[in-house]
Design a protein that fits this description.
The protein is an alpha/beta fold and 645 residues long. It has 19 helices and 21 strands. The strands form five sheets. The chain has a ten-stranded mixed beta sheet with strand order 10-11-12-13-14-15-16-17-19-18, sandwiched between helices. α3 crosses α4 and α5 packs across α8. It is globular. The termini are far apart. The C terminus is likely disordered.
C-alpha cells in the first residue's frame, strides 16, 4: 500500500494547474464567495433546450467533497443506479494483469454499466484486504481514462463519475481529479486519518490541557472538508472561473515527465512541458540574489557567445530554426527513457523574418479610430496646442472602444497630469463601446447621450463625465441600466454623473473620483481606497467588499441595504455629520444640474424626508474625518472644529 501511495504521489505531482486570469480584477474567493459555487449535478444530463422533467432530473451536491455517509446515500439512490467499479490490477497475471489491460477492462465495464442504465459510476480503490500483488490504478489515471472513453463513445452525458479513493488528501489532488472528469470525491483515507488523529493520545492530551481547541470527530472531518473547499475556490479564482461545474472535465493542466502513451492514448489533453524555470527575488536578501543572478546571466551570455563563435555564427538570430545543430544525448535514466524529443528536433522550416526584423518593423495599425478623427479636427488640435476652449458633438457606436483614451494621452504627454489650462467639451451621441472616457485628464468634459458598455471611466485622473439617456426613450432613467460593469475601475480623480443604473463592480478600486449613479449591480465600491460614491437607488449584493478608503452614500427607501453590505471592513451609519450631509447634498445638486435627473430633483425637493433614508459606509480610515464623524462641527467662518465630549 505504501509503494502504491508513493507511486500515486509521484504520478499526480506531474500535473500543474494552468494560470490564466480572465476576469479583471481577478476574483477574490473570500470577499466574492457569493458569485462562486462548488455545486455539482449528478446523473444523466438531458437536452436543456427541450421541455420535460426527464431533462432536469439530477441529484445536486453542494460541494464535490463527500464523506462516507453521503457516498452511501448516493449508492442507494434508485434514480442514479450507481455502479461501483474497482480499480485494481493483478501483477501476478503478467501481461493479462497489467496496468494497461486493467484500464481497458475498467473502461469496458464503465461502458457496459452506462449502457445498462447506470447514471453514476463510482471508481473505488477500497479493499477489505490489501495485497502487494494487487495495487490500485492511480486514481487520476482511472478517472481520466473512463472520462475519455465515455466521451469517445458518446456516453459521457449519460453518467457522472465519483472517485472513492485513498489517494486524495490535498487540494491539488482534488482539483486534478475534478479537472479530469470526477464530479465528486470521497477521500476515505483522509477522513479516516482525521478520525485517528482525533482519537490519538497526543491529541486528547493537548485538548485536555487546553493547548488545543476541543473538537469532536465530526468537527475534525468537517474542518478538513472545509479546508479542501476553500482551496478549490482559490484554484478556481486563479483561473477566473466562478463555478466548479465549469472546471469539471476542463483538463486545464500542464503535465511534466509523463510518457506520451498516458498523455495521448488516454486523452488527458494536457500540455506536456519539458522545462520550466522560475526566478523570484524576495525578502531582505533580494539585492544579493539579484546581483548573483546578474553575474550568472553575464556568465551565460559569455558562454553563449563562445558557442556561437565556435559554430561560425554572430548572433542568436542566425541560428533560429536550425535544428540540425542539435543532437540528443543517450543518457540511461529510468525517468527519461520514454521522453520524446522529436518535437524539438524536427524542423519546421526557417522563419521568414528574424526577431530583429520583427522588432524593428513599424507598429501596425488597427485602422482609424474615433480618437484619431477627434485629434485630426483642427479646432480640437488647436485647443490642445494653445490651451483653448472647444465644443464638439460627434456620433458614437459600440464598435468605438476606449474613446478619449488617445486624446487624454496627447494632453497628458504635453501638459502632465494637471497642467492643461484649456477645455475640451465633447458630446457623444449613441452607444459607446468598452472603456468609454477612459483615462480622462483635467480639462476634459465628456458627455454621452445614449448608453455605454463596460469599463466606463476606467482609470480617469480628472475631468468630468456625464452619461444621460436619449430623450423620449419610453422608460424611466432611474429604472434602466445605462452603463455596464466595472465602471471607474482604478479611477484616481475626476467626477462622474450617471442618470440611470450601472452594472456590477461600480467604482471598483476607485481611489479619488467622485460619482453619482442611480443604482448598481453587485460588488459596488469594491476595493475602494478613496473618493466618494453616491447611489440614489438600489444596489446588488456584497457592497463595499474590501473597501479601505473613501465614503459611500446609498439611498435605502425600502430598508433592504443592510444585508447586502459586506461588513468585514466598513461601518454602516446614518449621515449624521454636518459636513457629510453637505457633501452628499452638493453632489446630488451637481448631478441634477448636469443630468436633469428627476430622481435627484425629487430628493432635493424633500431633503428632510430623504436624508434619514441614506446610509453612509465608512471604512476605519475615514472614521475621524469631518464627513463621517458626528463630533465635528463647522463654525460660522467655515472652519471645522472638534466638539468636546
Amino acid at each position: 500500500m505504501l509503494l502504491n501511495f508513493l507511486y500515486f504521489v509521484s504520478f499526480i505531482m506531474g500535473f500543474c494547474e494552468c494560470k490564466c486570469q480572465v476576469t479583471n480584477p481577478a476574483i477574490d474567493p473570500l470577499r466574492e464567495g457569493l458569485v462562486m459555487s462548488l455545486e455539482v449535478n449528478l446523473g444523466k444530463r438531458g437536452n436543456i433546450l427541450e421541455i420535460g422533467p426527464e431533462n432536469a432530473s439530477q441529484v445536486i451536491l453542494s460541494s464535490p467533497v463527500l464523506n462516507e455517509g453521503e457516498l452511501e446515500s448516493l449508492l442507494k439512490d434508485p434514480y442514479l443506479k450507481a455502479q461501483v467499479l474497482h480499480t485494481f490490477f493483478n501483477i501476478r497475471k503478467g501481461v493479462d494483469g497489467s496496468l494497461e489491460k486493467a484500464l481497458t477492462k475498467l473502461c469496458e465495464a464503465a461502458d457496459e454499466a452506462v449502457r445498462n442504465g447506470s447514471q453514476l459510476l463510482v471508481l473505488s480503490d477500497r479493499s477489505d484486504e490489501l495485497e502487494a500483488t494487487r495495487p490500485a490504478i492511480p486514481i487520476l489515471l482511472a478517472v481520466g481514462a473512463v472520462h475519455q472513453h465515455l466521451i469517445q463513445n458518446g456516453l459521457r452525458m449519460s453518467a457522472s463519475i465519483i472517485a472513492d479513493t485513498a489517494q486524495c488528501f490535498s487540494t491539488h489532488q482534488f482539483a486534478c481529479l475534478i479537472g479530469y472528469g470526477a464530479s465528486a470525491v470521497c477521500p476515505y483515507l483522509a477522513l479516516e486519518t482525521c478520525r485517528q488523529w482525533r482519537l490519538s493520545n497526543k491529541t486528547v492530551n493537548l485538548m485536555r490541557n487546553g493547548k488545543m481547541p476541543t473538537v469532536t470527530i465530526e468537527q475534525a472531518q468537517k474542518n478538513f472538508c472545509k479546508a479542501v473547499k476553500s482551496g478549490l475556490l482559490k484554484i478556481l479564482s486563479k483561473m477566473g472561473i466562478s463555478l466548479l461545474s465549469s472546471y469539471c472535465g476542463a483538463q486545464i493542466f500542464e503535465v511534466y515527465g509523463l510518457g506520451k502513451e498516458i498523455i495521448y492514448n488516454l486523452g488527458l489533453g494536457a500540455e506536456q512541458k519539458l522545462l520550466q524555470v522560475e526566478f523570484s527575488i524576495t525578502g531582505v536578501w533580494g539585492w544579493i540574489l539579484f546581483e548573483a543572478r546578474v553575474n550568472d546571466f553575464l556568465t551565460i551570455f559569455g558562454q553563449v557567445r563562445g558557442m556561437l563563435a565556435q559554430l561560425g555564427y554572430e548572433k542568436l538570430d542566425d541560428i533560429i530554426g536550425l535544428t540540425e545543430l542539435l543532437r540528443s544525448r543517450d543518457i540511461s535514466l529510468m525517468k527519461t527513457q520514454h521522453l520524446d524529443l522529436n518535437y524539438i528536433l524536427s524542423s519546421v522550416g526557417l522563419p521568414k523574418w528574424s526577431s530583429t526584423m520583427i522588432r524593428n518593423q513599424e507598429v501596425h495599425s488597427n485602422g482609424p479610430v474615433l480618437d484619431d478623427v477627434l485629434l485630426s479636427d483642427q479646432k480640437v488640435s488647436e485647443a490642445i496646442e494653445k490651451e483653448l476652449v472647444v465644443n464638439k458633438t460627434v456620433n458614437i457606436y459600440n464598435v468605438d472602444r476606449a474613446v478619449c483614451g488617445r486624446v487624454s494621452g496627447v494632453i497628458a504627454k504635453k501638459y502632465g497630469d494637471s497642467g492643461f489650462a484649456g477645455q475640451l467639451n465633447l458630446t457623444f451621441t449613441g452607444s459607446a463601446g468598452q472603456s468609454f472616457a477612459c483615462f480622462l485628464t483635467p480639462g476634459m468634459n465628456i458627455r454621452l447621450v445614449g448608453e455605454a458598455n463596460d469599463y466606463v471611466g476606467k482609470g480617469i485622473a480628472g475631468g468630468e463625465l456625464v452619461v444621460t439617456p436619449a430623450e423620449n426613450t419610453g422608460f424611466l432613467p432611474e429604472d434602466a441600466t445605462i452603463v455596464g460593469n466595472t465602471c471607474l475601475y482604478g479611477a484616481t480623480g475626476g467626477r462622474v454623473f450617471v442618470r440611470g443604473k450601472a452594472g456590477e463592480r461600480f467604482a471598483v478600486r476607485n481611489s479619488l473620483a467622485q460619482a453619482v449613479v442611480e443604482g448598481t449591480g453587485d460588488h459596488c465600491c469594491e476595493y475602494m481606497t478613496g473618493g466618494c460614491v453616491v447611489v440614489l437607488g438600489k444596489v446588488g449584493r456584497n457592497v463595499a467588499a474590501g473597501m479601505t478608503g473613501g465614503l459611500a452614500y446609498i439611498l435605502d427607501e425600502d430598508d433592504t441595504l443592510i444585508p447586502k453590505v459586506n461588513k468585514e471592513i466598513v461601518k454602516i451609519q446614518r449621515v449624521v455629520a454636518l459636513v457629510g450631509q453637505m457633501q452628499l447634498k452638493s453632489l446630488i445638486e451637481a448631478h441634477v444640474e448636469k443630468t436633469g435627473s428627476s430622481k435627484g430633483a425629487a430628493i432635493l425637493k424633500e431633503w428632510d424626508k430623504y436624508l434619514p433614508l441614506f446610509w453612509q459606509l465608512v471604512p476605519p480610515s475615514e472614521e475621524d474625518t469631518p464627513e463621517a464623524c458626528a463630533n465635528f462641527d463647522q463654525t460660522a467662518t467655515g472652519e471645522v472644529t472638534l466638539q468636546s465630549a
